[in-house]
Amino acid sequence: MSQSLERGLAVLTALAAGPQTLDQLAQRLGVHKSTAMRLLRTLEAGRFVRREDVHHYRLGSTLFDLAHQALEDLDVRDIARPHLLELGGIGGHTVHLATLEDDHVIYIDKVDSKHPVRMYSRIGRRAPVHCTAVGKALVADWAPQQREQFAEQLTYPKLTANTIDSPERFLTELERVRAQGYAVDRSEHEDFIHCIAAPIRNHRGEAVAAVSLSVPKVLLDFDGLLGLVDDVLRAAGGISAELGWQPTDKRKES
């Protein structure tokens, strides 16, 4: 690495802690003030640094633009994969990663169950939002008006005896998901399967995907499934953190 580049990065690292004076930066770099000034002028020309007042410098807008673009370019599937494998290894159950596509969810990754009894699913398969845990997790945090409009446009096919079959019931369920931080599918999509899911958030706190555990009822009863909620939340939180989300960034309740 060239000396100038190394020094420039050191300046940016120093300014990440807050505004600094020319004297402070020169001392940190171990260079004369004239050398530090030349670096600052170069960084300022590219808007990597801006002068806050006569004496202080701070990070400039270019860095924030680059950081934003880097976060936007993160691939949730690549980031999620190690977390999905870890979650699947806990009990050997099926793990899904899903995103929203119009009024359906689409499975974009999967870790297969290690048990002989398992659910049928495949990457690329679509499923209804109203009767899947991942679907509920993806839309529960929307603003009330957006949730209501979405609920009204769904058709609510009755896939099992437990399937939610009206906008009113779906909205009530979303309020429950919103309050508890995770979603469940109590054999609403398939008779012999129940699931739990949690949202994955990006750096803006938006639910961009959801992770779920799907377990045949013959292998684990519902109380046993709920015993794995913390594991699912931990996986979702780990993926979200790598996408830039921090709990303090959560949007205020609508």
UniProtKB/TrEMBL annotation:
Pfam families: HTH_IclR, IclR_C. Residues 2-61 form the HTH iclR-type domain. Gene3D superfamilies: 3.30.450.40, Winged helix-like DNA-binding domain superfamily/Winged helix DNA-binding domain. Keywords: DNA-binding, Transcription, Transcription regulation. This is IclR family transcriptional regulator. The keyword Transport does not apply. Residues 62-245 form the IclR-ED domain. It comes from the Bacteria. It comes from Saccharopolyspora oryzae.
